[in-house]
Amino acid sequence: MTTLQDRPVGGTGTPGAGGTAAAPRLVLWSAEDAEHERWVRGRLFGSAELAGRRTVVRIGPAGRGTVRAGVVTTPATAARDIAGAPVVPPRPGGPRPVALLFPGQGSQHPGMLTGLAAADPRFRRDVDRVLDTWGEEGRAIRSDWLAARPRVELDDARRAQPLLFTLGVALGAAVLRWGVEPAEVLGHSAGELVAAALTGVLAPEAAARMVRDRVAAAVDVPGGMLAVAASVAELAPHLTGGVGVAAVNAARQTMLAGPTDELAAVAAVLAGHDLVARAVPATTPFHSAAMEPAVERLLRDAEPPEPGTPWCTLVSGYTAAPLRPEDARCPRFWARQLADTVRFGPALDTLLARGDRMLLETGPGQVLSAFARRHRAVRSGRSTVVSLAPGDVPDRRAVLEAALALWLEGHPIDPDGFPPVDHPREQR
Questions:
Q1: CA–CA dist 223, 202 (Å, integer)
Q2: DSSP assignment, residue 63?
Q3: Beta strands in 124-206 (DSSP E)
Q4: Where does the pLDDT of residue 48 fall: very low under 50, low under 70, confident under 90, or very high at 90 and above?
Q5: Which domain holds residue 407?
Q6: CA 372/CA 32 separation, integer angstroms
Q7: What is the spatial distance between Cα 315 and Cα 335, in angstroms, rounded to a whole number?
Q8: pTM of the entire predicted model
Q9: What would the pLDDT profile of 106-135 be if each residue is shown by its tens digit?
């Protein structure tokens, strides 16, 4: 059977790291002023740590008011990369607070984050810990995640939602180990359960059970989803039958859901009005009236939540407001998320109205990053967005580049939050 350790550490579609000499590592340095920075940079060229097993090497003070620089490099290219790294002065007013964005179904893809799981034992343990809560089904989910030909396709809700929950929780925990303290979290659709588990609104085991119960209630409901480049107002005259607005993601970025035949009929009508619709990889009409029987099943069978007090603000993707304690305690609030419209765009408006932010998409892909880049606060440069696992860069390098972005912004980065560089054979 394929195991996490058997996967290449480079990530999807990329050869393995090939040992310590080729494995990327993050070099960070800071200084009191430009003259001091030149002296610190000079020390780096002779640093024995660059040839060792440390993934993150940091030199110099890390307080506010210091100039910073850094690079993701390898020992073979370190001298050139360090010499060319630009110096970043301290940001006026200090670093922008961090907000974590957790994607939902639609962000899944084959091989997602297997490279990081192979390279980072703590991330791998967090993945295993969540999957083990589902017993035999968790083992089947793990097997399909790692398989070249899964028995159940990853676009099926029985695989997509448990895996996105598992990877979101594990990746969020990794970010916290770096020393990052998010100001807010926001999840899209099932990503709200990741946000709830990570912040203590729900115990991780309770959130995992909720994922399991939701999938069991929803999987037999037939239908699909469409992404349409149009506003809700533009679409309203063309929605018929059981087709409804499933998600409002950004300006003129709307999702529709409903029974398959009715969805196809609406898609044909939209095409006649020059509105571009694209099928979404989902076999269930989430966030539509078709899910009402699944909601009632959840209310009848699911265990009631026992919420805790979150340690940071959770902005709900359903109410587009900070999660209220009375909602967290309400079984109907959680159950209705299967049928209710996701209001990610308005929720992001609420989050960014709290101030400029550094948004981290904490999950596979760049779906939420693409939505966020359409927001006026990001387009203007007041806020920014970083994808932790964009899919077009090897996993290990991608997370190091995200950590570099946080460092250059002015956030502390704890080198001990990263695993040592190991040869792939040492990970077995």
A1: 30
A2: S
A3: 184-187
A4: low
A5: 1-152+393-428
A6: 34
A7: 18
A8: 0.92
A9: 899 999 999 999 999 999 999 999 999 999
